[in-house]
Each structure stands twice: as structure tokens, then as C-alpha cells.
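Fold this complex.
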Amino acid sequence: MDKTALLEMKGISKKFGKTLANDNVNLRLYRGEIHALLGENGAGKSTLMNILLGIYKPNSGKIFYKGEKVSVRNPKDAARLGIGMVHQHFELIPTLSVAENIFLCLDNCSFVLNRAVMEETIRAYSEKFGLPVDPAAKVWQLSVGEQQRVEILKLLCRNSEILVLDEPTAVLTPQEAGEMFKTLRKMANDGKAVVFISHKMNEVIENSDRITVLKGGRVEDEMLTADATVERLTRAVVGSRTIGMQIRKQEKKRDDVLVKVSNLNVNNDKGLTALHNVSFELHPGEVFAIAGVAGSGQRELAEALAGLRKVTSGSIEMNGKDITRMSVKDRISLGISFIPEDRIRMGLVPQMDLKQNAVLKDFKKPSFSKFGILKGKAVRAVAEKYVKNYDIKTGGIDLPVGMMSGGNQQKLLVAREVSGNPALVIAAYPVRGLDIGAADAINNILLEQSSKGACVLLISEELDEIFEMSDRVAVFCDGKLMGIRDTSQTDYDEIGRLMSGEIA
Amino acid sequence: MRIGTVQIEKRQIVPPGIRILNSVLFVLLALVFSSLLIIAAGFNPIAVYAKMISYSFMSLRGLNGSIKAGLPLMLCGLSVSVAFRMNLNNIGAEGQYAAGALLGGWFALFGPDMPAAAKLIVMFLLCAAGGALLAAIAAVLKAYWNVNETIVTLMLNYIALLFMDYLCYGPWMAPKQTSAITEQIPKDMFLPNIGNTGINSAIIIAVVMALCLYLFSRYTTAGYEIDVIRNSVKSAEYAGINVKRKIIAVMIISGAIAGLAGFVQITGIVHRVQAQLPGGNGYTGIVVAYLSRFNPIAVIIVSILFGGLKNSCAAVQIMGVPSQIATMLQGSIMIFVIAGEFLNYFKLTLNREKHGPGRLQDRSDMPGLKEGCKGKENYTEMKGASR
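Structure:
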């Protein structure tokens, strides 16, 4: 490993209005290493990287590249220096092919495109770094994981020496994430410097060489990964705040059946079978987890239970009553709550304000409207109650929820969904993309619901979360229910093998 | 982004005062632009504008004319606003107006004799029903088969207008008449003027309708549901809102209001049915709705202004100015106001600090201004950091 730093950021400060997003931050990157930037949402990780990329201009601080002071005024400057970034939201044009998307970002591209040469170059990089993708495929046909590979290939074709990835695993399945980290390692071995932003400690410990922890805009801790422990990182990330589940699981009796799903078949958006003959029973007061790699039918199951997706055959019963064809509205009044996976597309209306979102499901209840007229005061009161009880950070209940951070949006959504003492709470990836503080709060609300007697159906990809939260776990693979286990009587290994479809 | 010393910032919330100020500013700019064309045509724009304003708005008689011309526009504008508020592109106000006029006009011309009030009520309902029926065709196709409502409503316009032509040139044409008009409707069905102002009482219908729509969208659960559907159909379905039923209801209401334009025109102004009765008001209603930003109260005001514009053509024609000036002004106002929408979402501030030459590209001070959702993210990032 080269001992002099490839890149050094010194004393970087950045203000947004009155907020210090970066406060005198120092960061060094070396050739051949994978560097992890760890921190909660809003710790300043993305800001720092956006400064490196020239998207933001720092209020103070210097950047040294290969020992020389450089000024990065815009992303083009950064690209010329060999600094590139894969953003959380990909910047690809869906209707163009992979090769065309990569052409687009090249400066030295000749006027007449030589497709064959280009595709050959892409193929060479694909093979060298283990990024399998068909250069001729259209981007819209690719899975999220493949699109990410295209983004990485874009940087490689540009001969980037510093590659920054903003929360690269947030959109990937555990398997895809593993593959991606292998690629990152190959790039580091090739002499490049790789930086990834994350707030997952395990992934940082397993895949990086050095770790910088940001907290409140400052560097809280910096260490070699070899010296890192979960305890040390946790302390650096969340500070002295205590974490952990406040409500522990209790032994529950399983006599009553709340929901009975029999031989359920459901199609996905493309009209293909997403669930094959799935049967299970849910009991009041339990946390029932659904495990499986992404796209194993979890989303279709959740939507079928919530009434948002047509059931092709089979039945769903709740308290002995057939609800297979019942409308969403009637299911809501039966006490089925749903926390969808993509809260901005479904579940919240980002353009509307907090108070309007707070009554999205309850506005027709007599407490919020009479003869079709909304009761403004009651709506405000309930919104204020949610903000207070669930510690939602907001500029005010009259501001659009699109302006709130992801964690606070989720708190609002969950607050609303558990407000009516639901019988069944369907929670799809409820803490995905949230920082530890918000995730903790959400998990505690869900556990509280189960201790009150509600059944929580928890869909998750994180086995840690499943083992910590749930009483039973059902494992899905490719739309089939592979098995149901008590979490106290199984282990990661067995669940992992069920997820991969090895045992049934 | 900075251009010279001007800095552009994204607004998160647009205060209503700013909206109104911007609209007024850009209407003025449109007038400045049009004055160039008036100069090119060889007239003094100030004299032309002065004549238009004094003719249309400075006398009771002129104001009457403006309101009269604006009356069908009000209802068409309201009709379009209602549908557009739910992202339904009902551009069929023209046809729905005609359909309402035909159904109501048929009753007025050939219906049984009843007390005047009863006849007016029946005719009112039939006009609304006519417009609603035509809109319902597009609504059902949209709700159940997701057929594009823009195209269906547009094509239905031709059907309704041509059927109107057929009736007015054919079976309904008054004997002894050379133009395509019917007999007058019975005198007791003429809507009276308000006191001795000369303003027809039909305006009350439009104003009450606007008020109702305003209160409806602000305070009712149905108005709330429409807001949710406009912003996110997925979230509406998730919340158990019956989106199909709302599409049909909103289109029917929209069509009924356009149909009522037929009622006010027949009973308040022309007192008969005639070919091409809507006369493009259904389309101008789209412009009115846009300029009013789908706010029903604003629709009334903008309609009177547009009515005045049309009304004043006659006055400037005497000066030798072509009457197309009204259409030209309408067009440029529309383009300018829509272009001016930019200022509702971005704030321009003069920057008095001194800058070195290299700082023109400094985009760092505005977390809001990166394209689309990016801006939002940066904003949340910022908020997060403030904790």
C-alpha cells in the first residue's frame, strides 16, 4: 500500500443556512484501500462526498490530490481528476442501452460512435472486475443490482481512481451486496481508492480497510477496520444514547387464529405467478417474520393481505371470515394496517402536509369529519399528538411531508398505522434506510403493538432484525413458502439455506 | 445558481401573495410584448389599451358587456378546473356546453307549459344532465379501461357540435330565418337582470357555483380525497379511496358545470339555441382555468377580464385595429403567465456581495436547487444535520 495519501481533504466545513453540515472534517484516502464512511442519517456523509465531487462548494477547507492542492468546482472537474461517484439514485437513461449510457459520460468520445469497440471495452472491464452485464441490454430491462453495475462501469470506463458509492447496499439483496463488495475489493487491488457510505456496522466491519465515523458533521472516530468492534463503532455513531429493545418478547400462547391464509396464489405486476400455494396462520400477539431475498413474493403477499392486489386463487380468512375479495376500505376497518416498503410512493403523499397525511386513512371517521365536512381542529390535534408522542422532528404540521427526513416520515406513517389499535400490522421493511435511532423507535412501536395483542407481520431481509424481533419466521424462496420456524429453535444457517431454496 | 449578481433559489413553500403578484407581473409583461405587435401593425399601443380598458371596464354598460361575454367562460373555466384538480384532462367543455344547451334548449322550446320557476328548474337540471352525460362517456372509459380522457372528450366535442349544427340548420331552425337559429324560448324563461343594473342574474349561478366548489375542495372529505388522488393514486388506493368512483364523479360534475354554461347562455343572453353556440368558450375555459390555477374564485375574475378583452374588440375595431387582437392578447397572456410559473418555485435575489470571476459556477449555497427530487434530498439531509 502506498504510504502517501492519494487524496486528502483538510478542514472541510460546509454550512447550509445556519446548520453546519460539515465541521472541520479531515479525510485521507489511500490507493488500494476500501474506506467506509459511517454515520447516521444527516451526519454529513453525503455532504462531504458531494464536496469531493464538486457538487457543493465548501465554506472552508482544502483538497489535496496526489500531493497537489486542487479546486473541484463541479463534477466535470472531479471527473477529469479521476474522482467518480455512484449516487443512491442512479443517473441512467432507461430507454438507452448499457453501452449508450456509458458513452454518454465519456468526454473523449468521438463523434461517430464505434459500438463494437465500446462494447468490447465494457466487456473487458466487466470481466476484469466481475461486473456481469450485457452491454447491448436496455437499462430499463435490468434489475437494480445490474443498474448499479452499469454505474460502476461508467466510472471504470472513465478511468476513475477514486470511486465513491453512496449507500450501495441499500438497494441490493444480501447476495448482490456480497458480489458488489467482491468487485470493490478487486478495484482496490487494482490500485484504486474506494469509498462507500453506509450506516450498517456489520457491512462496514466485514468489507472495509479503514473507517471514518461522522457524527453531527464532525469526525467522531477514525480507525483501521482491524481495530474496530461493534461496540466501538456503536459508541461513535450514536454517542452515549442507549440503544436496545425496551420491550422484550414474551412467550405467547397460540390458540387463537387471527388470519388464515390457504393455498394463496397471487400474480406480480407482469402477470406472472409471484406466490405459489402459500398457506399459513397468524396468531394474535405474535411477531411473524417473512424472510427471503428480495423479489421472493414478499411484496405481493403484503399487498394481497392489504387488499391492494388481486388474489388469483386461494383464500384469506380473518377471525374466521373470508376476506379474500374484501375492499381495502373494509379491511382497514377490520383493523388491517399496512406499512408499505416505499413510503413516498404509497402510504404517504409527499406533496401534502403533515396533518393531511396524519388522517389519510381516518378522515372519514366521525372524529375527523361530519356530514362529509372535515373537522380542521380535530385533524390538527391528532397531527400534533403524533408529533409529540412519537418524537417526530418537523418544521411544522403545515409543511409537506416530502420535506421531512426519511426517519421522520416513517415515524409519522407508523404512528398513523398503529393509531387505531390494529389487529394486524403488515410492516414491509419498516426500518430500511433509517438510522439507528429512528429504526429503534419504529421497532419498539411494533413490539409494543404485539404486546398489546396485535399480530405483526414483519417483512425483512435482515436476519439480525428478524431474530431480534420475531417469534416465528416464514422463509420464502421464489414465491414458495419453504418453511416456518420458531426463531428460538433455529439459526442463521438454517434460515439462510431455506432462503436459497436448498432445503424445504 | 448565480447569473451575474442574481441568485436563483428554490422555494419550498409558495406564499399565495407571491403567486398573485407573479401572475399580475406576467400579465403586464404580456401586454408589453403585445404592444410591440400593435406598434408593428401601426397603432399606438397605449391608445389601444386605454380604449379597451375604458370601453370594457370604465362604464356600467361596458362592464355589463364584459360580464355577459365572461359568463359562459366562468362556467367553462370552473368545469375545467374541477377536472384538472384531479389530473383529469377534460378538454371537452365545449361539447359538454353544447350537449347541455341541446337538452335544456329542447325542453325550453318544446317542453310542456308549467309555471316559469318550475320550467327553469327543469331546464337547469336538464342542461347539467346533458353535459354530465357526455362527460360520463369519457369518465367510464377512463375509469374502467384507462382510455385517455383527453382524446375522448376532444372527439366528443365534434359529435356534440355537429349534432347541434344538424338540429339548428334542420328540424329546429326557425321558419322565416336565414341563419341557423331556433325560435326564441318562452319569454317567462328569460332570466331577469339584477335590479336596474342591467347585469343578468345568471352571474349569481356562476358565483354561487364557484363559492361552492371553493368550499367543497377546502373543507370536505371528498375534496380531500381528490387532493390525495391528484398527488398519488397509489396512496389513494392504499387509503381505501375508491379511485374509479371518484374519476366518474368528478368528470360528471365537471361536465354538468359545462352544461350549465348552456343554461346561462340560453336563458340569460341569447334566449334561443343556435349553431356554434359555445363559440370556443369551452376551449378558452381551459386557458381561464390555467391562469386561475384552478382556483374557482380566481376563475370568476379571470373570466370577467377575458370577457372584457373580447368585448373591447368592437371598440378598437373602430380605430381600425383588427379584432384578432383579443385572441392575440389571450395567447400572449397565457404563454407569459405559464412561463412566469418559474418564479413561483424559484426565488431570484440580487446579490450585493462582491465576487471574483471564478465564482459564477458556485452552486454550493443552495441545497434546494439541484434537479427535482435531488433538491428534496439535500434539504432533508440539511434538516437531519440540524438535529
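The first helix of chain A runs from residue 45 to 52.
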